[in-house]
Amino acid sequence: MSRLSVDCLNEIFEYLERDTLHSCLLVNRLWCESSVRFFWRDGWNYNTLNYCTLISCLPEESREILNINEIFIPAPTSKPPIFNYATFCKVLSINQAHHMIKNVIKNNNQQQHIYTKDLNNYTNIVMQELCKLFMQQITSLKKLVFWKSPTINFILCPGSKDCLKNLTELHCNSNISAEFFYELSLVCQNILSIDITIGQIVSDGLKDFISVQKNLKYLNIHYGRGKDLKDIIPSYVIFSQLQTLKIQYSCSRYESLIKFLEMNGRSLREFYMGDYAGDSDNSLNLAVVKFCPNIRKLSTGFKSNELKTLKLVFNCCQFLESINIWCGGEFFSEKEALEAILYYSNKNTCELVLYHLYNTRSKLLPEELESILSIWKNRVPIKPLSLVIVKYDANSLDTNDKNMKIIRKYIKLGVIKKFKVTGFDNGEKTAHYRKFRPIV
């Protein structure tokens, strides 16, 4: 392994976990020099020791400012830093950095008894100097996260334009000041992915910031109650490259969302409407039929009396590969959902995700499941089915041993490609599974 070229090592380190990368740092000089940039690239993974190391990398001018303010943070080692670690950072969370710095100061033996007001003041001083370091040393930041208004306007730091000009992913809150969004919009106009949490306040600058994005492909909105899409996105904006739209909670009205789909639906490949809450609107599903012909993955609410609309979705969205269907209450039963995809889906549909309402009780009989899967087996052309069950405290088909015996049978026959049972992730209804119980 010691004879591997730097290019080979870089290919390997690209896929290693952080703990493994830490071990690679200790192998030899070549491995250390190659792996260090991968170990330090994700600021989300920085701990207090990492921030102590970064503070030790501050230039003399910044260290003098800390000394004047009687902020003494010892370096992790007596030796000077081997690398300028900030240059390796590609993912930066401003609020997480602020939290970590506060812990560093609070846990420092020389400053454990400082008052809360002083602690916040000291933290802001250190953050100011670290932001200068980040903006000057990070050559091309890829992902930026800030959930609260930054106490330090890092966009005004020297070097920020070069640091942020190639930013591709942004996670933020709607209550950030309009001035901050304005400054950011002057630098960042080619963001590919935006994740917005909508709070009580929607900054006037947010609309303008979103409207100048030229290459947006992924938009994820975590709604606050009573907010409308037109509060966030100007009605005239067209995102010609938008492929994924996710609304994590229900919005107050669907008119603006339908208008958005009318203008941007043709490019969409994934559309996710997160909160069923009894708020699902058939007009929204009909808008998908009319404006989203190229959709591949779909998650909206279909009530049991809206089978006709579901048929239209399958008929008009010929590229649809995966669909999420709610089960229980006013929505479909497991049997109705399985029969719908069996009899009405198009040739490309091969994944069904069943979201179960709280406290739902399964009524699917083993003989019904057997019948459905045996018919799927004879579909032409045959495409193995992926079946995913998402639930929290619900009784679904997997709780029946006979059903599970049938599932295993059809996995062996190649009719079922994968079968997963998972819970809701942090209260959000999402098809990105982190915890699951695979059946193999």
TrEMBL record:
Entry-linked CDD domains: F-box_SF
InterPro entries given in the database record: LRR_dom_sf
Protein's name according to its UniProt entry: F-box domain-containing protein
Organism: Rhizophagus clarus
